[in-house]
Amino acid sequence: MNILITGASGFVGQAFCKFLSQKEEVKLIVGASRSKIEIKGCHKTVNLDGNNNRLTAQDQLVKDLQNIDVVVHLAGRAHVMKDTESDIETAYHEVNVEYTCKLAEAAAQSGVKRLVFLSSIKVNGESTIHPFVVDDMPSPEDAYGRSKLAAEKCLFKIAKSSTLEVAIVRPALVYGEGVKGNLLSLQKLIKKRVPLPFGAMRNKRNLCSLDALCDLIWLCTIHPDAANQIFLAADAKQISSVELVNALANGLGVQARLVKLPQSLLKLMGFCLGKRDQVARVLGNLEVDVEFTSRTLGWIPEQDTQAALARMVSSK
Fold first, then answer.
1. Which portions of this protein are annotated as coiled-coil regions (predicted)?
2. Would you state the pLDDT for residue 66?
3. Stretches in the chain below the pLDDT threshold 50
């Protein structure tokens, strides 16, 4: 089976390529962008550059996708807390929507059987009263989430008018080897023994193990029941911010310094610093129900998030 991966140099992409390198039945083909990277087990590299508005011509995309069985589309403009773009909506739309649709149209024209798209739980929303389920009405609250939802809609529209099948994966916050962003920043603070104001928090949030996510993406490439479906991805159990910090501290071999501050004070501090929305997200719940994903595909999510987080940091 010929599988083409976009975003092979990214956090999830590198892990999934490593995962596929162990599958003898797979010929891994990398859709490269500006950066050239060495991918173990890579059979071929094609130039699929969707960055900086240099969208590959449609006829070239169609040509590059000849003889490809499955496209796993992991490339995209990632979510960041401090975005410096003057027009954030356009920046996300150009990469996450326009290029995704262009790639899917070329895949359909080339006879590709299936396209697996890495979306985000942010399509569902930023917080929960009840756990998110796959049938929830989408409620994205930022440009990134809206771009992922728009891309999903475009993919299903193309699938409806062609023989291309699509499978959508919406993971919660992903952690694993090589993680960056907020989780990496938190690790550094814990290691430096910086006091953290989360001691009084009792929120519940689902994370998503990188290893389990790779297994789910693989199932979406081969399972017949994955066609034209959306799958939520998260670990089996929720953890609190306190449990998250303690798990990372345990893996680092240090004692976490947690300070108990009332949530009302944290919200006030967020308001004064112009970070009200960010603080509200940290304090809130984000629970994800993956029963449909597990039942449909036979997928087994990570069962012990705290142990997996400790292993992640202790392996460095």
1. none
2. 87
3. 35, 50-55, 81
Q: Is 194 helix (H, G, I), strand (E, B) or coil?
A: coil
Residue limits of CATH 3.40.50.720 in the chain = 2-176+206-236+287-302
Q: Which residue has the tokens 């790779």?
A: 214
Task: Please name the amino acid found at residue 38.
Answer: E
Give 154-162 contacts, CB < 8 A, sequence gap 24+.
154/97, 154/100, 154/101, 154/104, 155/100, 155/101, 155/104, 155/115, 155/117, 156/228, 158/101, 158/104, 158/105, 158/108, 159/108, 159/228, 162/108
**Length of the chain in terms of residues written:** 316
**CA distances to 131, 149, 158, 211, 223 from 152, in Å:** 21, 5, 10, 24, 19
pTM (2 d.p.): 0.89
175 φ, ψ (degrees, to nearest 5): -130, 155
Can you give the pLDDT at residue 288?
97
Token pair of 199 as six digits: 């001691």
The DSSP secondary-structure symbol of 192 reads: T
Q: Is residue 68 within 8 Å of 110, Cβ to Cβ?
A: yes
Superfamily of domain 2-176+206-236+287-302: NAD(P)-binding Rossmann-like Domain (3.40.50.720)
String of b and e for 40-77 (b: at least 16 CB within 10 Å)? ebbeeebebebeeeebbeeeebbebbeebbbbbbbbbb
Taking the CA atoms of residue 135, residue 141, residue 147 and residue 149 in that order, the dihedral angle to the nearest 10 degrees is 10
